[in-house]
Amino acid sequence: MSTNSHDTFDMNQSFLRQQDGRLSPAEKRKLETWLTDPEHRKAWDRMQSVWQAARDLPIPQGTPQDAQWKTLLNRMSAAEAHARQTRPQVRVSDRLLSSIAPRLPRLAIATGLAALLVVLAFRTDMFRPGMHIVTVPFGQQMQVSLPDGSSVHLSAGSTFEYPRSFDSHIRQVRLKGEGFFAVRPNHRVPFLVETTQARTRVLGTEFNVRTWDSATEVYVKSGRVAVHSNAVQASEVEVLPGQLAVCEDGPISVQPTEPGALLSWRQGRLVFANKRLDAALAEIERTYNVPLAADPALLELSISASFSKESLQTVLETLAASLNARLERAEDGFRLASK
Fold first, then answer.
1. Confidence label for 129 from pLDDT (cuts 50, 70 and 90)
2. Domain coverage including residue 241
């Protein structure tokens, strides 16, 4: 494996999500594969060392980003003072940069260091005042009121970024995870939700945005939205109530969809309709905040099941029975094993 895979594997985000306990089973497998490269393992271990040295001052979840940045500067200043006592004439930032993966691009390392120390950072190019960044722990949900009177209901494991106040031309937010939006109508100022794969533009409506895997899914409950693909130039579709738009790396597909399975998370329910086990386990893991795994032979199987706030033990025993698998205790969670 070449170190060029660093370009497609986001080491910074994976490290932060691991520290926060938010890596899905699929992300954990991807990380394990990436770490088989000795150079990647060395870079990861050195990031661990830097993290341990910089984590003395915890940052509460939901802290505005400017406060996070001040905390980062305080940490760096404290570390700088310690560095002057122990190694005169050497700046701590240089020491940290030189200690992380010398063969990786220096710009990527510098960006990674900032992302590493600012615990709740969603994107490393977002270090500017006036922004709120909210992360939702596994096992919880969160309701966020926006400056214009709109609101978003965030699912477990989601990261959401929004400004302290919207400008007079556009209301723009960013989402990684899943959220149900209730947007206050304003025909003069569009509301824009950005994800990795798409941009969703609305004037006033209720809709759900889901972006856990390699696709962004937008379901409209009322009103209408325009979904624009970031991968296909000039690709934009209008989505009406009861329709689901799926945006991956090609043209956007739109189809009528029942909202039951899509919106069940808002009531704490789990509804799987012919869903692959790996995706189902990732959702269960986010809901209950317990690490889950399964034998590779099971992960590609599909399941159909519905749960309404049952215990984790009940959910997993039901899945094990339907898959003819064994439920085993793992070191920090559970595992489904083939019989």
1. low
2. 136-258
